[in-house]
Write a structure and sequence with these properties.
Radius of gyration: 19 Å
Strand content: 5-15%
Oligomer: single chain
Strand order of the largest sheet: 1-4-5-6-7-8-9-10
CATH class: Alpha Beta
Bound molecules: beta-D-mannopyranose
Distance between the termini: 13 Å
Number of helices: 11
CATH topology: TIM Barrel
Low-confidence stretches: 1-22, 26-31
Largest sheet: 8 strands, parallel, barrel
Helix content: 25-40%
Shape: globular
CATH superfamily: Glycosidases
Structural class: alpha/beta
Mean pLDDT: 93
Length: 370
């Protein structure tokens, strides 16, 4: 499909005249020819999914490990419970900034590269998040004892040099995602996520809106200088006090391709109303911006840890997806070292049948189905 069709299709889906559907990637790459770059092709594919009212289902670290297993060839909790691999697999780049060979939850970057290729070959897509360490304190992403961004976004400073080097290592990894012919694999990249909360060092209490936007610009500057053409950029606020806050720290249409939202369900069945209130606030905020810029919307991270509700997928998530035309939804990981930290059921879990029914719903796309 030619991307020249996309603005019109977005306008139909969103019920208004969209100006453009994807200028985070250069207009010449998206408007003239949807396959001019790997990123343009992925963006066109996702936009077509959203415009058709369908949703790609994703799971973090899906083929690396699952509930009580790790690194077993071809294994996946989603495959074992639904019969299919997820349409999207998210991977996290935490510790790439140090040049480490293994990321923060133990996944070797070489293994991630192989698994990303396997996911692409089965017709699925890949996404990347990043939990980098705090360059001012040496602590992890959650260490907010020092705020590096006031200095970090100013060129010529030591922290700016560090951030540039770190972002450069992330860009090098992204460039290394290739198929056997050396063609780069397109990926969704969602840096500096959940910045409307204050649990990461780039969060709301630790930088001004201008500093946060400058961090995105710096990130793009480094990626662009390295010639990265396989990234679809995703912006993903978490908690909001109002729908309007969604756009408060938005870096600009030229830096972003997909309008994401991260929102989790807490408190079991009693927390359902609260989850839906927060999810609607975020998705309404994203949709309001999408009505202006025509970009696709995604539920970039969600889930209910341990699935205390057996029917969460069909009675909470699926109805929410019917309300909002998101391109994809991604749930978080099934940790092998922590038996209660899982977001999809595993073989034998009481939510298995409900999850299978969810994946078989006509709207939900698994690998090979789109
Ligand atoms: C969190 C948890 C942690 C993990 C981190 C980064 O939500 O899953 O165990 O280290 O994400 O992946």
């Amino acid at each position: 499909m030619k991307t020249s069709m996309i603005p019109a299709m977005c306008a139909i889906a969103l019920g208004f005249a969209a100006s453009a559907c994807g200028s985070g990637n250069k207009a010449s790459e998206t408007d003239a020819d949807s396959t001019a770059t790997p990123a343009a092709a992925l963006l066109a594919r996702l936009t077509a999914v959203a415009d058709s009212g369908l949703v790609v289902f994703g799971h973090h670290d899906d083929t690396a490990y699952g509930h009580e297993w790790e690194y077993e060839e071809g294994r996946s909790d989603v495959l074992e419970t639904s019969g299919k691999y997820p349409g999207l697999i998210n991977w996290d780049l935490g510790l790439i900034e140090y040049g480490d060979s293994v990321q923060l939850d133990g996944v070797p970057f070489d293994f991630m590269r192989e698994q990303a290729l396997a996911q692409a070959e089965r017709g699925g897509i890949n996404a990347l998040s990043w939990h980098p360490r705090n360059p001012a304190s040496g602590g992890d992403s959650w260490d907010t004892s020092a705020s590096p961004l006031e200095e970090g976004v100013r060129p010529g400073t030591a922290l700016n040099d560090t951030l540039r080097a770190w972002i450069g290592r992330a860009a090098d990894f992204v460039l290394s995602l290739q198929d056997a012919d050396g063609e780069r694999l397109p990926v969704l990249f969602r840096p500096w996520h959940e910045h409307t909360g204050s649990w990461f060092w780039w969060g709301k209490d630790f930088c001004t809106p201008e500093q946060y936007k400058a961090l995105w610009k710096l990130t793009r500057e480094v990626f662009d200088a390295k010639g990265v053409d396989n990234v679809v950029w995703v912006y993903s606020p978490d908690k909001l006090t109002s729908e309007e806050e969604y756009a408060e720290r938005y870096p600009g249409d030229e830096y972003v391709d997909v309008l994401g939202a991260d929102v989790y369900h807490f408190g079991g069945a009693d927390g359902t109303a609260d989850y839906l209130t927060r999810a609607r606030r975020q998705l309404n905020g994203a949709m309001a911006l999408a009505r202006q810029n025509g970009k696709p919307v995604a539920l970039s991270e969600t889930g209910m840890e341990s699935l205390p509700m057996d029917d969460w997928y069909t009675t909470v998530l699926l109805p929410l997806l019917r309300e909002y035309p998101v391109a994809y939804v991604c749930v978080w990981r099934n940790a092998y070292q922590n038996p209660t930290h899982f977001y999809t059921p595993y073989k034998g879990h009481s939510a298995e049948a409900d999850f299978k029914a969810f994946t078989e719903d006509g709207r939900i796309l698994m690998a090979g189905e789109f």
